[in-house]
Each structure stands twice: as C-alpha cells, then as structure tokens.
Amino acid sequence: MTVSKIAIIGGGNMGGAVALGLHRFAPEFSLTVTAAHAATLEKYAALGIPTTLDNVAAAAAADAVVLGVKPWLVQQVLAEIAPALSGKLLLSLAAGIPAAQMAEWLAGTGVRAAYTVIPNLAAEIGESMTFASAIAGEADELVLPVFNKLGKTLIVNEKRLQAGMMVASCGTAFALRYARAAMEGGIRLGLYPEEAKAAVFQTMKGAVDLAEAHGTHPEAEIDRVTTPGGITIRGLNAMEEAGFTAAVIAGLTEAC
Predict the structure, then answer these.
(1) CA distances from 27 to 43, 112, 165 (A)
(2) CA distances from 115 to 77, 89, 240, 245 (A)
(3) Is the pLDDT score of 63 beyond 90?
(4) Which residues, at least 6 apart from 49, have a Cβ–Cβ distance to it below 8 Å?
(5) Is the pLDDT of residue 1 over 90?
(6) 11 and 55 in one domain?
C-alpha cells in the first residue's frame, strides 16, 4: 500500500493546520478537505484544495483518512464513514480517546491500520512536533512520510502519547504564554509592545536554534550566558524563587 490521496475529515483548527501544511510542503499528495459547513471550506477552496461536505465520498476516494473532528464527534463520524474504510489508513487527530475504545469503534471496518496522531498547530508552517501511536495494525512506514512533511514525528506507545501531547501539542500554548510574560516584562522595562514582541520571538527562536546547532542540553547554553554574580543568574534565581520550573512541570502533568 502507498499513500497518495488523503482525505481530511474536519477542516477545523488542527485538521486545517494539517491540510494547509500538506498543501504547502507535500504537493505530491492529493488532498480533499471536508467540513460540516460550506463556509469552513472557503479558505481551502481558495487555495485550490478540493473540498466537499460529503465525508463518505471523500473517505472512499482516499488511501488515508485523517480524522480531524472534535473528540466527542469521533464515534459518530466513524460510524458514518465506516463503509469507506476497508483497506485504508486511518489517522485520528482526536486526543484523549483510549486506543481500545477506538479499536472497538473500528471493529469490522477492515481498516488497514489506524493511529492516533497528535501534531501541533505549527504543522501549518511545516514545524510541528508530532507524536503517533498505533491503534490497530502497524504501518509506521506510511505514517512517517506524511507527518515528517510537517515537521518531526515520533512513533510512541499509548502511555507516552499523553506525555508527548502535553509537551508538544499543549506545549505550543505553554511556550507562547512564556512569550507573553516576557513581552509584558519587556514593556515594564521600557520597550514598546512591538519591540518587546520582536525581541522575545527572535530570542526564543535563536535560543532553540543555538542549542540544536550545538546538540547541547539547554543547561549547557544557559551556563554560557550565566556569568557568576551577573544579572542573568540574578534573573534566573528570581524566576526559580517565584516557582518557574515547578509551575512548568505542574502545567505539563496536570492533565496526565
């Protein structure tokens, strides 16, 4: 089996990010996007991406079906498209549904393989950190070529999928909350808002690129900036006294 035609059932935030990312960075795939309302599909149609309101027709014509609907709609939509899933690869973007439950809903469909896949919104720009875990069957060789087009992908077991979701998917919000806080601090120190935003975003990007380029642990790069008795260590100590690391870990573990 090869994947060349992909149906994205549900063109909302996450399904839409995957659709836009594949359209931009993987033109070798033929895409179809569906939604419950025609207005949702307008932005995809404007880019030349085929769209339809017919989930079954889209699934029937595809090699792989990306299920991008909200978790509470998954069972309903799976029942709708079940006749079209035989021999197909199913990639569910719905978080929080146990693999055993998904496998039960898929029983009798003849699906080739099914995975829960947790990308993040940066899939839209080809910079997602995606985690994937098998639900039924194994087809890593089909999943990786699709989602590696949108960034980096790790195949993990179900237990580690939850951790990956918190660090990478929810992590987008956590990282940007730090950015917001740093911007507010910069404004308090005298920067104009746009100056603070530009400085924080570029600094975050540069810090990550630096550590990746050197292949180092973050602490190694922190040590290079932290002069004994200097202003950086005073700032770091103040953040830790305010509970910075503990707050981050608490946020990541809250939903696990």
Answers:
(1) 17, 24, 27
(2) 16, 8, 39, 33
(3) yes
(4) 19, 23, 31, 32, 33
(5) no
(6) yes
**What pLDDT is recorded for position 255?**
65
- For 235, the token pair is 């700032």
DSSP H or E stretch at residue 31: strand 30-34
Is 140 among the domain residues? yes
The enclosing domain of 204 has a CATH number of 1.10.3730.10
- Please give the tally of structural domains in the chain: 2
Largest Cα–Cα distance of the chain, in whole Å? 68
**Tokens for 101?**
């439950």
pTM, 2 dp? 0.91
Helices (H), 82-130: 99-106
Residue 195 lies in a domain: yes
Q: Does the pLDDT of residue 235 top 70, yes or no?
A: yes
Residues 40 and 150 in one domain: yes
> How far lies 165's CA from each of 36, 52, 159, in Å?
26, 30, 11
Q: What is the spatial distance between Cα 48 and Cα 217, in angstroms, rounded to a whole number?
A: 43
Spatial distance between the Cα atoms of 216 and 218, rounded to a whole number of angstroms:
6
